Amino acid sequence: MNDRQPRPIQRVVALSGGVGGAKMALGLQHVLPPGELTVIVNTGDDFEHLGLAISPDLDTALYTLAGLANPETGWGRRAETWTFMQAMQDLGGETWFRLGDGDLALHVERTRRLKMAASLTEITADLAQRLGIPAQLLPMTDAPVRTRVTTDIGELDFQDYFVRRQCQPRVAALRFAGADAAAPTPQVCAALTDPALEAIILCPSNPYLSIDPILALPGVRELLRASGAPVIAISPLVGGAAVKGPTAKIMTELGISVSPRAVAQHYGELLDGFVLDARDAASENQLTALGLPTLVTDTLMKTLDDRIRLARAVLDYARTLGNHQEKQP
Amino acid sequence: MNDRQPRPIQRVVALSGGVGGAKMALGLQHVLPPGELTVIVNTGDDFEHLGLAISPDLDTALYTLAGLANPETGWGRRAETWTFMQAMQDLGGETWFRLGDGDLALHVERTRRLKMAASLTEITADLAQRLGIPAQLLPMTDAPVRTRVTTDIGELDFQDYFVRRQCQPRVAALRFAGADAAAPTPQVCAALTDPALEAIILCPSNPYLSIDPILALPGVRELLRASGAPVIAISPLVGGAAVKGPTAKIMTELGISVSPRAVAQHYGELLDGFVLDARDAASENQLTALGLPTLVTDTLMKTLDDRIRLARAVLDYARTLGNHQEKQP
Lengths: 329, 329
Fold this sequence. Notes:
Two copies of one chain form a homodimer.
Chain A: E1 12-16, H1 19-31, E2 37-41, E3 47-49, E4 52-54, H2 56-65, H3 83-90, H4 101-115, H5 120-130, E5 136-139, E6 146-151, E7 154-157, H6 158-164, E8 171-177, H7 186-193, E9 199-202, H8 207-215, H9 220-226, E10 231-234, E11 237-238, E12 241-242, H10 247-253, H11 260-267, E13 273-277, H12 284-289, E14 294-297, H13 304-321
Parallel strand pairs in A: 1-2, 1-9, 2-5, 9-10, 10-13, 13-14
Antiparallel strand pairs in A: 3-4, 6-7, 6-8, 11-12
């Protein structure tokens, strides 16, 4: 397990959802050489709205990695205007999902290209290149997967639950419609089977909403287990609460204790290492008792420097875990 | 021909293209009682762009009649922003057709409704109502008609000729693809056969590009000839030149003299009356020689007051022409 190498880690795959995961990915992008980071992004949140194909997590990753993200919200673009939304309201159109004027260009252009039979993977690669993103940005699949939320008021489409109803309904279960039949793309499979791969990072996104859809694709868990690179999850909890979003609320509603231990147990035997926040250091003993190596550090990412520092810490930690050809059962 | 009525004219149909025609329609809307004006708009300029259904003349009419038009350009919306266009350029998308952020809402919402099998007529009626337009605004047809321009560099789609190439190619011929099979809508037919109809106005739009597509629909010429209401064209020329757009250039390239007489002769036996600008008064004798009654007045519409004044003058003139059951052959 400990065949340390003198040089820093270069080739990394990160699995990510939206805001929190994208921050981690940005830190990794800054630390790693150009072209060595692959970010595989959840598309379970994708939906069609106003006739446009919208990929919220992929968009957040794109804007974040391009340096265009709105620093206030984490989603959408900086220096955005909202004339479209106002005009749409005047026309009696739907306005519950806020689409900024600049953001619209992405949705219109992607929708146009999808209609011309380009894949989401191809489109994303081209847009990422145009926006100067040095990382490889990959949707988890080109097939439709749609997260559905079973709640006390019935099963809801994800964006209906998440945006329109602001996560207020009580969650009883989650499912990823279409995941069974949605192959991870060849690019995703290639990244995860790359012999040069040195670490697989499960970003501090919501494990249940953002990482699980990726893990639900046929073969992805097996690829992670088969990889020689250590698989490391970063806890999305800081001080026993989620930094942003409904992670803690959902864990509670699903009957899961809101703790790093529960997150680590959720990922289970996929993990070779786990990173938790210093404010949750009391959980470290529980994790060690599970036989899981841990890194305790400051995981809160308020500034770009925070992201870079955390990325360095995680990569240094990954190096201590080393590469191995076959995971322990 | 001269059975004058004491009360002012109430029910009017206007045939219109974009900017110039919409100005005339706005004047008529101000002068006529609510609900008494029907504006039938050219859709030969319509096209799909960036996956969106765009109806340039209908949009200009909608914005103009709603008081939302950009007073500088005549097309698009006032208080517009352009963030979408800038973002589209950054993404490598097509930017030759300028779409403002607020304007986009109309295209996105219309495209969405068309996909849900609403007709352009239904969508336009609903949007016009939401924007508080008292006139009835009708696309000439719900079927696709596409103006094609034969030029010295080959046949071009209309917007390619008009916007992308800024009317620079030399025009040899115009055709309206699909017009043969495109029925005028029941609403268009109803408006033109309304027994209460008192005037049919051919707005000062480009006769060849904007009015001809409407007249090319099967049955429309016959409905105009059969109507008891006088048909009156307003010359788009002022002082022997077009106020805006390529009318004069196209007339020249088609070998037509740039004169009110040529416009009147183009419409031919459809007309019961013709309105020309005072700056072209020298043409009046030629028109009278054709046996066509004329009104000479100031047709230049710079302000709303100009539009109202011209509308009043045209309606007063229509009253002098009177209603008649059958046009002269």
